[in-house]
Amino acid sequence: MCASLLGLLLGGCFVQDRSYVLAKPDETSGSWRIEHRIDRITGKPAPTAFVTTMLSNNKTTAIRPALVQVMCFEDKPIVRFSFDLRVGADRNSTFAYRVDNRPGSEVDATFLEDRKTIAIDDTAVVARFIEDVSAGSMLLVRTESLFAGRTVAEFRIVGAKAAFAPVLEACPLPAGAPARPAT
Questions:
Q1: How far apart are CA 16 and CA 141, in angstroms?
Q2: DSSP class of residue 90?
Q3: What are phi and psi of 29, to 5 degrees?
Q4: H-helix or E-strand containing 118?
Q5: Any bridge partners for residue 28, and if so which?
Q6: Alpha-carbon span 97 to 118, nearest angstrom
Q7: What's the pLDDT at 72?
Q8: N or C: which end of the chain has fewer CB within 10 A?
């Protein structure tokens, strides 16, 4: 059953998106899949790096798929988490992460309207996340919400530094982007 759920999530990632063309074949870096794409409208590179996993939620017994993706959005890198169930809303939810055995904490993140997608788009928080994940092997993510309960996902992140390189080349962090501590 887990394999079929993961297949459903991944199926959405591999459907032909006609707004992009491949710049070169997809590749992997450790646990990460890297898609080298070019936006057909602007002609700009639009690479993305992602890894999938299974998650748990304290309000359901079903184990569901999840995805973490580093990509360009509006010419800057963002981190996007996609879940197969509702995990929270901006008004009543928190998001936190931890890499390996290093202390983690809550960070500023936006819960999108579908309540299944979370974005980290603040430049300083993205810089810190990329720095933390690039040096790690395991990412633990937690969302907590009054209506959706607690959701936990554990991602294998080996190879992140190389996976992020094409994304950061296409949309680099601003020079001197402060990697402020997680809040």
A1: 29
A2: G
A3: -140, 105
A4: strand 117-120
A5: 33
A6: 12
A7: 94
A8: N
pLDDT of residue 174: 84
b/e string for 12-26 if b means 16 or more Cβ within 10 A? eeeeeeeebeeeeee
Between CA 171 and CA 109 the distance in angstroms is 20
Place of tokens 């017994």: 61
Nearest alpha-carbon partner for 173 in 130, 142, 119, 136: 130
Q: Give the distance from CA 47 to its chain's centroid.
A: 13
Distance from C-alpha of 42 to C-alpha of 55, rounded to nearest angstrom: 36
Quick one: which H or E segment has residue 8? helix 2-14
**Which tokens sit at 168?**
């950061």
Q: Can you read off the two tokens belonging to residue 89?
A: 């809303």
Provide the residue type at 120 as one letter. I
- For the chain (183 residues), the mean pLDDT of every run of 10, in chain order, is 45 58 87 94 93 81 87 95 89 94 94 94 96 96 89 94 97 72 43
The two structure tokens encoding residue 2: 């887990």
User: Which amino acid type is present at position 53?
Assistant: T
**CA torsion, ordered 28, 29, 33, 36, to nearest 10 deg:** -70
| Paired sense of beta strands 110-111 and 32-39, if any | unpaired
Whose tokens are 């001197």? That residue is: 176
